[in-house]
Amino acid sequence: MTIDNGAGPDAAKAPAVMESDRTVVHRGVRSMHRQRRLLRIGILALIVLYVLLSVLPFYFLFVRTFVSTKDSTDLWLWIPPAEQVNMNANVGNLSVYLNLDIGDLKEQWDIPPTEYLDPRWNLNRVSEEYGVPEQTIRDTLRPHGRFNGWIVLLGNSDFWTATLRTILVAGLGIIGINVLGIMTGTGLAGLRHRFHRLIYATFLLEIVIPPFLILLPQFLLVNKIQALIPGASQPGLVRDVSQLAVIVGLYIKGGALSTMIFTSSIGAIPRELEEAAEIDGASRWQYIRHVLLPLMKVPIAGLTVIMLPFFWNDFLQPFVYLDSGNTTLQPLIQSFTGQYTTNFRIVYTGVFVSILPLVVIYFLFRKWFISGVLEGAVKG
Amino acid sequence: MRSRQYLSYRRWRWMSLLIAGALVLGACAGGAEDTTTTAGETGGGDTTTTAAQEPETTTTTTAATVEPVTLQIQASNAEYLNGEIQIWDIFQAQNPGVTIDVFAVNEDDQVAYRARRAGGYFPAIEALAMPQVDIGTQDLYVDLLTVDTEWLDRWQYDVRTAESEFTGGTGLRSLNPLSGFWFTWVYNADLMDSLGLDPRSVKTQADLQKLLVDGQAAVDARDDIDFFWDVGYHGWVWSSNYLGLFPLPYKDGQRDPYQQASWSGEIEDPSEDPFRYTFQYFKDAYEAGLLPDSFWLRTWDDMEVSYIAGKSVMMLHGPWVWDKMLSENPDARQLGIPATPPLVEGDPWIQYVASAQLTSGYRIPVENLDLPEWPIILKAFNFWNSPEIVALRAGVNGSAMAYNFDEPLALEGPQYTGILQEFQPGGLYEDLIITSAAPGQDVIAQYKNEDSGNFWDWQWSDTFAGVVQGEMTIDEALEWFHNQVATDYTIP
Questions:
Q1: Is the pTM of this model over 0.90?
Q2: Which domains occur in chain B, in start order?
Q3: Cβ–Cβ under 8 Å, residues A91 and A109
Q4: Which of A3, A55, A199, B283 has the highest CB neighbour number within 10 Å of its CB?
Q5: Minimal Cα–Cα distance from A39 to chain B, Å?
Q6: Do B305 and A72 touch (CB under 8 A)?
Q7: Interface test with A, best of B56, B106, B321, B417 (most A CBs within 10 A)
Q8: For the segment A314-343, what is each residue's pLDDT rounded down to a tens digit?
């Protein structure tokens, strides 16, 4: 029996066509889904690859903190096995190449500090001459077979004080350069004077003067100024603080970059905002605190991102201006290398540890940095 | 709630103040322990405060109590800082109230250190590892002949006149009891044995060539060794040592101990310049595949690390790598042979030793003369050059000394036991001729133009690269060298 549904002879074909269309559509959708999934997987793979490429150098640096000079020509994908204590090793060589303090060794082996420990003696001889049990010597030195860099660095009180000094000068430097930059920018952006451009350009001139060129005259100048401070020519708190203040001062002095960033940012703020604040009775400080500063998040974050690693990793200025007992991280790490030799473990450990605080800071404040950048992007 | 994410402004301000205060106190605590006076404008902590009693071996000096004073004294090398601190502890024990702050400046820090010096900083006693004093800087240091410097008769040469003869000036600014840098062949004896070779059978230059060729062939057959003769580039080593070593077997290469005539411009004709032997040696060796590819770009450190790791068998090297090897492998067997075998068997070997470091010893910055602690500074300087202390210093760095001791010095340094003792009577190379002089480069240093660079540093490596690759003839290389000397120096 044939039922005429009034759809004509082609109507019977319709469901099949529809079915076929649906199949095609389904296939298309599936294919699209597959493509999207593939795209997603591809993007994910790229992201994973990118993350790996970004993290791998840190990983390899970490592994290198355990690799001795002898093994340093090989590629190490994981921490190498610990080196055994060799009782034929000379005390002097251990001291030089593992950066071990002979005074500390004497203390740990109950050798009177007044004894002159011949650096050419090997550990067997030290054991015999001073009656130090071999096991004690082995126990003292065994951890250095793998963790020499970490033990020497973290066990060195100079490292911790140098870290504190670095945090101090870098922190004050960042705060100072931002504060001074905002003040300079406010002044220059609001300046309506025929020499406006000249003054602005004078600030920017700093960017073309190589810091090395002025190192010596600047050092002479600073020395003269420091000599005026009572007590700064002798070791002590006054000298140390004045030296650190010099470093901070050099960091924050008339920076071309901060002037450029803040002058253009502040110049872009409509003058009406300032006038409105004035009409509402806001003082100058209130305007800066409640209107200007919130708008300066982007330039502050930008300048901080650029300048923080520079301050943190600065070697030359702290090396030149600070005494060896009042120094920051980079000169301290550099001091672990010798004239002819390098204990790679301690250098790599120093480098690794010195970048950790920066990484932590960027993780802690990443929201600020990202939101700052995004805010800028939306506002155009 | 958004507000939960933030501290109140008041609390934030107090916390910031507290953290800042803690940081200031913490940061300054390390450097503020020492409150004594110091020599020069410097100071700061990092002091060695361990009191040590005078050991039996030291000179007896009256222990006089003096006003608390800190002297900043530079270590000879960063490597020997810990060892030298132990020696200075003896001085501290003999002189209550005196604290010695021993510091080191390594090769990479030299430029920054010198900038600091130029800016007014001066330690009590300074040591420079490389020759850096010339007539232009003589006035910066105390003339040791005008003050009560002790022990000058102990030197194995007339130290009073040595510097003035060298520079043409007057006085004596620097003292160094080291006999100098000995550049010899050093090899890993275990590796050499495993290759079935014996460098000590070498009698002539031809034998040495054969050893190098056989060694490279043996190494090529092994996967665990990279180089037989390893070479890296180091500006000072090449210009002050390598350049002058290779001409020594030849008659015209022995014209003066260290080819000073070549540096001074006395020899201008490339065909007469002894340095042509050095270029020829490296050109032949490179073409024969005896040297690492692009050795002029290979750093000195890479070469040393390769040797220490047992990937290279032998090198032409100074004293410090011997200890470096032992520090990583205390059981390593190292031996050496002198640098330059003769051309003909039976002729004596010649071994060059870089001068007695006239210009790179310990000196006292002249500003110290005006300080109230000058007497104690001079006392410290005399202590450092006294026989018992020089013996201890020899022990620390394992070097031979050009200094007369009351009793023979029992040196235990690995370079000494590995090769230098063979130069003594009864040794394998007892007939060897030792030639010693200041490198020509150091001799003309005093005439260097102020605005000239160190052409002998990396530019030498480019020149060697050009010669061994055939991009430049040896004559052209030497012509370049003489032109550079003429441009950068004003030699009377």
A1: no
A2: 37-178+358-397 (3.40.190.10), 184-354+413-488 (3.40.190.10)
A3: no
A4: B283
A5: 36
A6: yes
A7: B106
A8: 988 898 888 878 899 998 888 877 666 678
